[in-house]
Specification:
Strand content: 25-35%
Distance between the termini: 72 Å
Largest sheet: 6 strands, antiparallel
Length: 155
């Protein structure tokens, strides 16, 4: 009788190879998921900032955005306004910061702990030139804030 099958060594080698491949793939997957989450933050923050710039262009004597009604033409996805200055999605909180069309972006974990990532602004150039824009990383997560700021300033 000829019994054919896998030896214990062959099975261990296959399990080892699968383990190595999954150890390599999992961090890449987590990185891709994090990038997609951060793109949500950038898209919504940029939409708010662009709406603030349009408001400043239509109202040249104004220098402060503190109410969602001032940027009524903004199209945001995935969340709701919880008050006149705060827009909240499942993962992020966007707060209108007043002067210069500032938007503060926080990451929320759903348990009431919010991480300050970055803030960006597009302020009116009162000399009649192009809008000035900028971004600064937050204190709670400066690495992520720095990456987001590089992306924003490059747009």
């Amino acid at each position: 009788m000829n019994k054919q099958g896998f030896t214990l060594i062959e099975l261990l080698v296959v399990v080892l190879i699968i383990g190595i491949l999954s150890a390599i793939a999992l961090p890449q997957y987590e990185s891709a998921v994090e990038k997609s989450r951060m793109s949500e933050a950038m898209i919504n923050a940029k939409a708010i900032s662009d709406a603030a710039q349009r408001y400043f262009q239509a109202n040249p004597n104004e220098t402060v955005i503190s109410n969602k009604n001032q940027i009524a033409d903004v199209d945001l996805r995935g969340g709701t306004w919880v008050d006149n200055a705060t827009y909240k999605t499942k993962l992020f909180i966007y707060k209108l910061g007043g002067a210069e069309g500032r938007v503060d972006v926080y990451r929320t974990d759903g348990d009431g702990i919010d991480t300050y990532i970055y803030h960006l602004w597009q302020k009116p150039d009162l000399s009649g030139g192009d809008a000035l824009k900028g971004c600064e990383p937050g204190n709670d997560d400066p690495e992520t804030g720095e990456q987001m700021c590089k992306f924003f300033v490059g747009i």
